[in-house]
Amino acid sequence: MNASPFRSTLVLVVTLSLGLLFGAATAPNAPPAAAPTVKSTPLSVVATVGMVGDLARQIGGDRVQVRDLMGEGVDPHLYKASPGDVRLLSDADMILFCGLHLEGRMSDVITRMASRRTVVQVTERIDESKLREPPEFEGHFDPHVWFDVSLWSKAAERVRDALVEKDAAGRAAYEANAKEYLALLDELHRYAKSTMSTIPADKRVMVTAHDAFGYFGRAYGLEVLAIQGISTDSEASLKDVNALVDTLVTRKIPAVFIESSVPRKTIDALVEGCTARGHSVTIGGELFSDAMGKSGTLDGTYVGMVLHNVDVVTRALGGRVPEAKPGRLGAFTANFKP
């Protein structure tokens, strides 16, 4: 019996369709199917101060885009967030801050942001037994923990973990970058210890405008004297200045240091007071305390900031600074040479 026209047509259509299907699958010149596209953009990170921002840059690499609210020469103790800062914080994927009351006048803004943004205090995992609590700052810890490189390494680990938590796809990159950076910080810590150990025992006194270098002195074997306390949000009295002049004259301390983020008027008052008492004291140099140097330079990195301070203090107080930096430090600094 002959097939119906309808059945013949159906068989023809199915046959042609299968032919086209298998032909497309086996054609040697057929272009491969396009893979689905995934848009990848850097993680937007806003840091309050440069030292914190630099941790994110070193560990985050090209997976992050970092903005610092406070740049070169800015005092975080006195800084108030502008409307532009608030917008920047509101748009960020992650906000990093030091904490321990460093950003005192920004505390309310940071607290509000925590309800709708990922906000991380980079010092939160540092053992409290290792934090300084000077008598004049009773009830609060000294926030300048970056001046003990071994403590700042704990902040680096916190940033690594925060980035992994936020961007799990970048885990391998973050962990590899952190491993390299932590090794660099370990070498920096050892360099600071060995270099500053060359300062003569009777000259191991560091005089600055405000008490930002307590961790620095404790870690690297210096007595630190300052006119103002931990926060610059207070004025030094004439009594404070005269008491420090007495110490400088009596102990024949050769040098005092100014800070890039603190007005130098109190240090100039010390120099004048010593001169009036017949003791010559020099400005040993400018140190980075609450802010790093210019962006894009070695001093504009945390490692460069610490190296600068170690070398300036060591030279001014009669120690010996190596002509070349060793190992990883040498490679790191070479990237910034003209």
By CATH, the architecture of the largest domain is named 3-Layer(aba) Sandwich
Structural class: alpha/beta
Radius of gyration: 29 Å
List the secondary-structure elements in sequence, H or E.
Answer: HEHEHEHEHHEHEHEHEHH
| Whole-number tally of structural domains | 2
CATH superfamily of the largest domain: Nitrogenase molybdenum iron protein domain
CATH class of the largest domain: Alpha Beta
| Unreliable sequence segments | 1-39
The CATH topology of the largest domain comes to: Rossmann fold
Strands, helices and their partners?
Elements: H1 5-26, E1 43-47, H2 50-60, E2 64-68, H3 83-91, E3 94-97, H4 107-113, E4 118-121, H5 149-166, H6 171-196, E5 205-210, H7 214-220, E6 223-228, H8 238-251, E7 255-259, H9 265-276, E8 282-287, H10 302-316, H11 327-334
Parallel strand pairs: 1-2, 1-3, 3-4, 5-6, 7-8
Helix pairs in contact: 2-5, 5-6, 6-10, 8-9
Summarize the structure.
Helix content is 44%, strand content 12%. It is of the alpha/beta class and 338 residues long. α2 crosses α5, α6 runs parallel beside α10 and α8 packs across α9.
Protein model, in words:
The protein has about 350 residues and is of the alpha/beta class. The protein has 2 domains: about 150 residues, Rossmann fold (3-Layer(aba) Sandwich); about 140 residues, 3-Layer(aba) Sandwich (Rossmann fold), CATH 3.40.50. The chain has 11 helices and 8 strands. The strands form 3 sheets. Strands 2-1-3-4 form a 4-stranded parallel sheet, sandwiched between helices. A two-stranded parallel sheet has the order 5-6. Strand 1, helix 2 and strand 2 form a beta-alpha-beta unit. The longest helix has 26 residues. The protein is globular. The protein starts with a helix and ends with a helix. The N terminus is likely disordered.
